[in-house]
Amino acid sequence: MTSILDIPETPAALLAGEYVRDVVTESVANHSFRSYLFGMLIAEHEGIRPGTDFDPEILFLACVLHDVGTSPRAGGRQRFELDGADMAAELLTAQGFGAKEVDLVWEAIALHTSPGIPERRGPIADLTRRGVGMDFGRAADLVSQEHADAIHARFPRLRMASSLADEIARHAARSPENAPGLTLAYELVRERAEDPDGLSRIERMAMASRWGN
């Protein structure tokens, strides 16, 4: 029987899962998997139908690859969101995906830190951003304790917010083009420099959330 907490097992999904675990930290990889599961729970809660309103495989690919741009393999001459979107597009194109599917994944990854835009670009971009946000504690009350326990047992947090913030800051330090003003990376670096404890807003948000760091 299919469960809302199942991970797609198509060849492309399995490859993407292996790829993300190879290029980012375990903590960031687990965050990416959880983001998909949270996105699916949001879809179920709102009556957005998998297989009818969106393709779960495409949502999985967008979520699981959304932070690969923070990895050392990223080109390092543009925002991590764009590095990640380009890396995902290259991976999926090599797997034979068409331009429409590749563009949906590219757009969702490129826009996942841009509030107000993904919500108007269809279910893949919207659910990707909101699934990611839920892993930082946004709308966490929508998740039952049973589902929360199952998700975190399978994909432990491992200080996710701190680990991801470290990787974003590392990527930002590689080149001025990586953290242009007012982007998430720029603000994260600024906030860490100004905060007495060296913490960014997203780290504090996660720490104060239902899930913790």
Structure description:
- The chain has 213 residues and is an all-alpha fold.
- It has a domain at 11-157: Hypothetical protein af1432.
- 59% of the residues lie in helices and 0% in strands.
- It contains 10 helices and no strands.
- The protein has helices at 11-23, 26-46, 56-64, 80-94, 99-110, 123-135, 145-154, 160-173, 184-194, 201-207.
- Helix 2 (26-46) packs antiparallel against helix 3, helix 3 (56-64) crosses helix 6 (123-135) and helix 8 (160-173) crosses helix 9.
- The protein is globular, with a radius of gyration of 16 Å.
- It starts with 10 loop residues before the first helix and ends in a 6-residue tail after the last helix.
- The relative contact order is 0.15.
Give descriptors for this structure.
single chain, 213 residues, mainly alpha, Hypothetical protein af1432, 59% helix
Describe, in short, the structure shown:
With about 210 residues, the chain is an all-alpha fold. Helices cover about 60% and strands about 0% of the residues. It has a domain at about 10-155: Hypothetical protein af1432 (Orthogonal Bundle).
